[in-house]
Fold this protein.
Amino acid sequence: MTESNLTPKRTKSRGLFAGMGIRKKLIVLHTLFSISLGAVLLIAIRPAMSKVIFVAEYDQSELIMALLLDSGGPIDRMASAHIERAHVSLGEEAANEIPETIAYQAKAHPETAVPVPTNGFASGVVRWIPQTESFVVVRSRSDRARAAIQLVYILVIVTLVAGYGLVAAALEIFVLPEYVYRPLREILSADQAVREGNRDAEIIPEETIPADELGSIMRSRNESILALRTKEKDLALALDRLENTAADLHKKNHLLETARKNLEGADRLASLGMMSAGIAHELNTPLAVVKGLVDKLDADKALSVAEIALLARVVGRLEKLSDGLLDFARVRPPMNVQADIHKLVEEAQTLVTLDRSNSFRQAGIQIVNHIKPDTQISCDPDRLVQVFVNLIRNAVDALVNSKITGGRVDLYAELQTRDGTPWISIRVEDNGPGIDSALIDRLFEPFVSTRLDSHGTGLGLAVANGIIREHGGLLVATNRPTKDHCTGAIFEVMLPRRSRCKKT
């Protein structure tokens, strides 16, 4: 996916400032403000400056008027007199230059010079001369006043430009870098850390946060990030609890299903147990005879060495079958003594190692006992050893048959409390192919074998399950969860710390 697809659509800003950075926006705003201020200032002082020019030219024209009238000469000669930067109008020409209101005012006050507005050349004064019954208009242009006013305008403009430069320099040097650009860089850097998953840099340090509106935004952002992380932790804890609850529920469902199947087959197992006990007792006598004959044959060398070895293996297999049938029939009363689980597992490990020595050497299988020493439990030690021998041997055979390199069998123990009762959970884990899904539901039924070779009788797990049930416990078989990124089977033996077997 492209970056545009991953980024949510943002509302496009419109108008004059669309797409501008903060610096450009401030420059444009400051320039517009300065130009507007200059225009308003020039417009505001223009009437006053015009008034200054008018007054200066009025005073100068009045002075010229007084000088002309005080000279005593004829008026027409006065008009013809050359006056630099001044203009004198007489008679009809003067009457045409002034408005009627000013003419009326001049006639009403012939002794007073009446101001005349500018005609483009200069302002001036007018007087009514009763002797000649005519008007005299004097206009005098004050170049000094006008030059001073232009200087004032220039100074105003220069002052505005200098003020603009000073304000811009102050903003760029003292205000914007520390109070705008640096906080924005801090926010962008912290947001980048959030996107990259850098938890150490996603919070803006308190000492770098200014005490203004941007600082409020930065603090609000920090609080939002902290609240988000708190929610993430709560969600992770909730997911962990949900996962643990689901796993526990799955285990309980499996236990309930196993218990239901055990109840359904209780009558059949009882009958099978009675039958196996009878067969076992019937086998004991001929087995003893066969064993004696084998010993005699071995002594007399009547058979070949290979035949004697074959007969001995057959007798051994019959003895194992007999012992399994007796255990399955529960004809042996269980003991109830304190035993160290660590030592029981070590004993079972030794027996399996001796029995499968060739397999260990060829496949390089390791058996690791992680159970802490002196982990006590009340049980029948011999029968629990038989359980662990069956479980470890099954794991070893599965690893040998699958031809997995680096085969490993790990044993763990964990103390638990269920309904106020102390329990212990012993797990036998391997990294083999796991248990076939078609067999896992009926794995503990008699004569169900997961090893289709000469070693499997199908009674080992059924006998082990019976022994664990005699102790008031449970035997559960599962495959490793997919999150472990490893295949293999897990056999979990759950036993109460105080066994429910009768003491001897």
